[in-house]
Design a protein that fits this description.
alpha/beta; Immunoglobulin-like; TIM Barrel; 7-stranded antiparallel β-sheet; 10 helices
Length: 502
């Protein structure tokens, strides 16, 4: 093993920053591959334990993450999904062709009621993504009414006839998805007008208040974001933005290669590893760009920024359907997640939600399942679990003042928060070959009872399987006192948390 590098991380525990919304740890479930069917939903006749067809071991595993929200039904699928085909007796529901993902036929057995039952089992807030690309304003408006209205109306009567008397609470609503691409191949100004129109008819029924999210840019397409901002505000306005939609989204995927040849999730060398980390770190620049533009049009920050698709994207596993986007999940993916969260925490005043793509069996999944009842928690799952203490906590300033680099790329990532008399520090050693001695230079508060946890593996390519589910799993980490605060030693390619009592 290489000689250990050193780092010093200064943490100002008494300087409160923005609240880290728990919704930055959100999830995404699309009708894609085996995310819904075979992942979340196995049907009521399955020998795998289920409730109403919803797979209970998946629910149990995700509840351990305190999953805050779940986005559904897409993704690209959202803009070809017609919600009325997914309600009523299952035997009467028409089938459909999922043209985006594998050209497979779906029976619509997982629809609105099943999704809401899943959210209730998870204790997660529903984030429903409506159909702009092939739908209508009326169709989306009636879906909101069906879900959230009480009293008596055509949609309420239909919901009650389908077995649900009380309306549901729907906090988050997406107005289309990737409308610059699979959601309609629209121009920015054309979609901006549609976003205003749709938002107008997405009513607040009773005490349900929708947080309407306009479908935003790909990566750093600031022109798209500006078109949406111009639709509700203007530079130098004394008034705030028109209260039509409350947030603007964007999508950002970490791809080390090209879109045609993304590379393997588990078979990669050091060059590909470093390219991955560099690409993941660039999320900071992208968020800063969108935030600066939003600050110009919305200086009081009434509009939220939502990253409702993020994660790694590799070539599918050999022998699997290329339209199902099934990929393995290695220690490298876990580090992509850990450094993303550090960036999210830094931008928590403007960034209000993020949704990893996706929750089960697709892209950078939390869980991988099989049809025989097997379930594997991925390395990325463990990062989410280890970081739970940041949910709704107050971010505090973190400065990495000494650290190793590789070709000008920083190899240490860190963030910290305080809540309820406790602090949580997260730190990643992104160096794939050398250990790291880290001094946590704690300032502004006395601390006690430090407890460390470590996530690492034999190499960055390591991953969990049904035969070896603990190949990458958290373990205790020794935390030593140091004149400036505390000291930890991190192996190569590792992620750690240190919890403290203040």
């Amino acid at each position: 093993m290489s000689v250990a590098s050193t780092a010093r991380v200064v943490i100002d525990l008494d300087v409160p920053g923005p609240t880290i919304s728990r919704h930055l740890y959100g999830h995404f479930a699309e009708h894609l591959g085996r995310c819904i069917y075979g992942g979340f939903y196995v049907g009521e006749d399955s020998p795998i334990p289920n409730e109403g067809g919803i797979r209970l071991d998946v629910v149990e595993a995700l509840r351990a993450l305190d999953i805050p929200n779940l986005r559904w039904p897409g993704g690209c699928f959202a803009d070809e999904y017609h919600w009325k085909d997914g309600i009523g007796p299952k035997a009467d529901r028409p089938s459909m062709v999922n043209t985006h993902w594998g050209n497979v036929e779906e029976n619509n057995h997982f629809g609105t009621h099943e999704f809401m039952a899943l959210c209730e089992l998870l204790g997660a807030a529903p984030y429903v993504n409506g159909n702009v690309g092939s739908g209508t304003v009326r169709e989306m408006s009636e879906w909101v009414e069906y879900l959230t209205r009480d009293g008596d109306s055509p949609m309420v009567r239909e919901r009650k006839a389908n077995g649900r008397d009380e309306p549901w609470k729907i906090p988050f609503w997406g107005i289309g998805n990737e409308t610059w691409g699979c959601g309609g191949n629209m121009r920015a100004d054309a979609y901006a007008d549609l976003a205003r129109q749709y938002a107008t008819f997405l009513r607040d029924h009773g005490d349900n208040k929708l947080y309407r999210i306009a479908a935003g840019a790909s990566d750093d397409d600031l022109a798209w974001t500006e078109a949406l901002l111009k639709a509700v505000s203007c530079l130098g306005c004394e008034r705030g933005p028109k209260n039509l939609f409350q947030a603007i989204s964007f999508h950002y995927y970490t791809v080390a290669g090209t879109w045609d040849h993304k590379g393997s999730a588990t078979d990669f060398g050091l060059d590909e590893y470093y390219a991955t980390i560099r690409k993941a770190q660039d999320i900071d620049r992208v968020i800063r760009g969108h935030s600066a533009l939003m600050d110009a049009y919305d200086p009081e920050r009434k509009l939220g920024l939502v990253l409702d698709e993020w994660g790694t994207w590799w070539d599918v596993e050999p022998g699997t359907n290329p339209g199902f986007l099934y990929q393995q999940n290695a220690m490298r993916d876990a580090l992509v997640a850990s450094l993303h969260f550090d960036v999210f925490h830094k931008h928590a005043e403007r960034l209000v939600m993020a949704n990893i793509a996706q929750t089960v069996n697709v892209l950078q999944a939390m869980l991988l399942t099989d049809d025989e009842g097997g379930l594997v928690r991925t390395p990325t799952y463990h990062v989410f679990e280890m970081n739970k203490g940041h949910h709704d906590a107050t971010a505090v300033p973190v400065h990495v003042v000494e650290q190793p680099t590789y070709e000008s790329m920083e190899l240490v990532s860190a963030s910290a928060s305080v809540k309820d008399g406790r602090a949580l520090v997260s730190v990643s050693n992104l160096d794939p070959t050398a250990p790291l001695d880290v001094v946590l230079d704690l300032r502004g508060a006395d601390v006690r009872e430090p407890a460390g946890r470590l996530l690492t593996a034999t190499n960055p390519q390591s991953f969990n399987t049904a035969g070896d589910p603990g190949a990458v799993a958290p373990a205790p980490l020794s935390v030593e006192p140091e004149p400036r605060g505390l000291r930890v030693t991190l192996p190569p390619h590792s992620f750690a948390t240190v919890s403290l009592v203040l």
